[in-house]
Amino acid sequence: MNLTAMLLAAGKGTRMKSERAKVLAEAAGSPLVAWMYETAIRAGADSVVAVVGHQADAVIDALPDSVVAVEQTEQLGTGHAAKVGMKAVNAEPGNVVLVLPGDMPLIREETLELLVDHHTKTEAVATVLSVELDDPSGYGRVVRSNGRVTGIVEDRDASETELAIAEINTSVYAFDAAELGPALDALGNDNDQGEFYLTDVIGVFVRDGKRVEAVIAETSEGAGVNSHRQLADVSRQLRTRINDYWMEQGVWMEDPEATYIDAGVTLEPGARIFARVHLRGATHVAANAEVGPDVHISNTSVGAGARVWYSVIRDADIGAGAEVGPYVSLRPGATLQEKAKAGTFVEIKNSVVGAGSKVPHLAYIGDTDIGSGSNVGAGTIVANYDGYKKHRTKIGDGVRIGSDNVLVAPVELGNESWTGAGSIITKDVSPGALAVSRAAQTEIQGYAARRRAKAEREQE
Questions:
Q1: What stretches of 15-87 adopt beta strand conformation (E)?
Q2: Which helix (H) or strand (E) is 200 found in, with range?
Q3: Burial, 460: exposed, middle or buried (Cβ in 10 Å; 0-12, 13-18, 19+)?
């Protein structure tokens, strides 16, 4: 048996009131359609076909290159979308098509595996994934007779008896690939919308005396996304799953409900995550590292035993035992090596802070390479931009930079060199030397009295 997953991802999602296609809306760091792809692959899909339409190029970009994209140029309903998708499906007898909407990220791989397994074991031509709701209003009801599915009735067309049915259709199906194509060809569009509905395929099969089954899933798994409120709800549930998983792997969390971890983040056992932490993208947090409170990190590696708090970190590398914060901004290309420090109100960009070196407070370090064991004084700024292009600064090992320095790039400070407080360094500093660049201090005696007398005269 060959299993093809077909993602119906052509719709605009007008109820979201967003210019972006609905399936591109992100939940826990991934587009909805990417969640569907990953789940289908984990459930055993041999290949994935995506039916795209609105913002087709962007939807294709959100999926791996292995996905076969087929464009639905006219939005003529789910039945029409499936028919378009069948052009890329191996429809030999015995193969199975798993049809999935692009906006149900809570569905689990185990549920899809159960659906396909039940479908093949019962030799059905179609198997519907359903859920049971306390209030099924607005949803298509799954109608059964002696346990066998006899149809799906839309809410507006249901009788009073059918309206009392709690089992509803989720728009997830397993189909016999050889049977689906002809059934789609038999669909009509005699309805208010003038569209071809995939649900009507069930009626075609039942009419022809073919077996249709249904598998009931957990209620939450049937949740689609048609509004920002629903997007927030599914995002919250995905975050809960993610956080529960990592805690089971040995990660400590101070407050899981106030911890936001994207699907692509990896954590090692022993990592400690405090409240109000956002970990995004391809971030990795090593064992015994402490992150938070109030930290936003994206695409960054945090080394073993490092400490990061009250900071914003983007595309950086924080070494083992390093300390970051409070109120630090690490911008792309910032690297803190083992036991380095970036302290209060420090910004670092495209720079390396060597092992054991410290930038303790109130500094900007840009396009700079700092060796090991150096210290950057408070108020130091690297002037890396001359108005036309950036230049690099090199600070050696064991360097001591005084407070309130300006290092005008390109400039190099040799190993174990010193600079005096308040200096503007425009020339290279030799190893072991002290560089001082400031005006000599002078005093004007009696200045305060003369200044006060002048002010009093001006007030008369």
A1: 26-27, 30-31, 47-52, 68-71
A2: helix 200-207
A3: exposed
The answer to whether residue 9 scores a pLDDT higher than 90 is yes
**Tokens of residue 145, six digits:** 């007779």
Compute and round to an integer the Cα radius of gyration of the chain: 32
- Which residue from 210, 207, 51 is spatially nearest to 127, judged by alpha carbons? 210
Rounded to an integer, the average pLDDT of 215-219 is 95
- How remote is the C-alpha of 344 from its chain's centroid? 28
- The predicted-structure confidence for 133-145, as pLDDT tens digits, reads as follows 999 988 899 999 8
More confident residue, 391 or 139: 391
CA distance 444 to 281: 59
Residue 178, SS3 per DSSP: helix
What type of residue is 123? E
- Please give the pLDDT value at position 18: 86
CA 445, distance to chain mean position in Å, is 64
Which CATH number is 228-435's, of 3.30.530.20, 2.160.10.10, 3.40.50.300, 2.60.40.1180? 2.160.10.10
Catalytic residue status for 361: yes
Token look-up 């002037």 returns 383
Reported CATH class of domain 3-222: alpha beta
Which of the following is catalytic: 119, 278, 284, 361? 361
